[in-house]
Amino acid sequence: MINKKTAMVLGATGVVGTQLVKELGNSHIYEEIHLLTRRHVEIKEPNCTVHTVDFERLTSFAHLFNVTDVFICLGTTIKKAKSKEAFRKVDYDYVMKAAKIAKNCNVEKLLVITAMGANSKSTFFYSRVKGDVEGGLQQLALKSVHIFRPSLLLGEREEFRVGEKISGIVSSIAQFIFIGPLRPYRAIEAKKVAAAMYIAAQTSTTGFHIHPSDDIEKLAASNDC
Questions:
Q1: Is 211 helix (H, G, I), strand (E, B) or coil?
Q2: What does the pLDDT look like over 9-55, one tens digit per residue?
Q3: 49 by DSSP, 3-state: which?
Q4: Residues 88, 82, 123, 197: what is their CA dihedral angle, to the nearest 10 degrees?
Q5: Where are any strands of DSSP class E within the chain?
Q6: Could you say which of 143, 180, 210, 215 has the lowest number of CB atoms within 10 Å?
Q7: Which 3 state secondary structure label does DSSP give 51?
Q8: Handedness of CA 170, 174, 177, 182 (dihedral sign)
Q9: Is the pTM of this model over 0.85?
């Protein structure tokens, strides 16, 4: 008999989070799935409960972190956030705050999306913030952490991003060009990232793990077996 698990998803309305909620809801492994969102949304997936929270007061909702696995799919853009400071608050501060609460609650696995090129010493602000997140998570020394570094994500978003839409179309058409050294730059479907996160959560591995796009593809493929 499979031991039932519980899960939490932060960023459940994003391009990956939406797919992840479907993946978890259809798995029959998670008996409870808690979704932390900044605004109320209607979710029809099985066993899902939506909690509208103020991420500035995340510690007030620490009791909701008493779950088996925590999935963090939080992310924004500088254009949407309006400033670098606001961007870092979502992509770094909220992620680290959630990770610290998860550690205090002794979660079994923490699974987080960063980005290809994440590097705390990067000259690019976006990549530097993602690198800072990875470094911070590694220092926390949780039981099991899985970092996912996708390239450009393909999938339906709530907000329309012209640049990403054009890049996604070009990348999907020219996938055959991205071979050899260029392979890591191939666009990847959000549902594949979600599938890879789900598969990683079912493993018994402990420690700190980073999954680049190629690894994400392999994990997602194993979900179809």
A1: strand
A2: 999 999 999 999 999 999 889 999 999 999 888 888 889 999 999 99
A3: strand
A4: 50
A5: 5-10, 30-37, 48-52, 69-72, 109-113, 144-149, 153-154, 188-189, 207-212
A6: 180
A7: strand
A8: positive
A9: yes
Asked if 126 is an active-site residue, the reply is yes
Buried-state track 60-83, b at ≥16 Cβ within 10 A, e below 16: ebeebbebbbbbbbbbbebeeeee
Count of Cβ atoms closer than 10 Å to residue 143 Cβ: 13
- In the numeric block, which tokens belong to residue 134? 């990875």
The residue type at 25 = G
CA distance linking residue 45 with residue 156, whole number of Å: 18
CA distance 9 to 24: 10
User: Which of 130, 191, 192, 198 does the annotation list as catalytic?
Assistant: 130
Q: With a cut of 50, which residues of the chain have pLDDT below it?
A: 1, 160-174, 177-178
Q: Which of 89, 92, 97, 126 is catalytic?
A: 126
80 is catalytic: no
**Phi and psi (nearest 5°) for 51?**
-120, 115
